[in-house]
Write a structure and sequence with these properties.
This protein is mainly β. It has helices at about 35-40, 90-100; strands at about 20-25, 30-35, 45-50, 60-65, 75, 75-80, 85-90, 105-110, 115-120, 120-130. The longest helix is centred in the last third of the chain and has 10 residues, at about 90-100.
Length: about 140
């Protein structure tokens, strides 16, 4: 018998360096990974909003809200691991997926590394959705 060992010393924890937003329509969780949090300078208690281009409905953006505008945004909180920051809204998650014809329960998307500036607002594009499919061997 020849055994291959898997332990803390030889197994690297994967932390994405690409700014990523994970969305789950069942729980309504929107989670920004650490890279996205750093890009947008997000902290616990900050507010954000998502925006959809009505002329191009498959184009979505995220914007950090400040000042008086912050009261109308989704308030962010840290996950227990502090490797991400999140908020919940099931209705928004489902509307976003419906607009993109995503039928899966969970997907990840990249966040553009540079902002689109529109009327002094910094909007970061939500792009390249990757749909998580159920594993065929999940029951085994």
């Amino acid at each position: 018998m020849k055994l291959k060992e898997f332990n803390v010393a030889n197994t690297i924890t994967r932390i994405l360096t690409t700014p990523t937003l994970s969305i789950n329509t069942k729980s309504g969780v929107f989670n920004f990974n650490q890279a996205a949090g750093e890009l947008l300078n997000l902290k616990e208690g900050d507010s954000i909003q998502l925006l959809q281009d009505e002329e191009n409905p498959d184009c979505w953006y995220v914007e950090k809200l400040t000042g008086k505008e912050a009261s109308k945004g989704f308030k962010l909180r840290y996950k227990s691991t502090k490797y991400g920051i999140s908020f919940n809204n099931t209705t928004l998650a489902r509307q976003l997926f419906d607009s993109l014809c995503i039928t899966a329960e969970h997907a990840k998307a990249h966040i553009a590394k540079s902002a689109t500036v529109l009327e002094k607002r910094e909007l970061y594009g939500i792009t390249h959705f990757v749909v998580k499919e159920e594993r065929e061997d999940a029951d085994n």
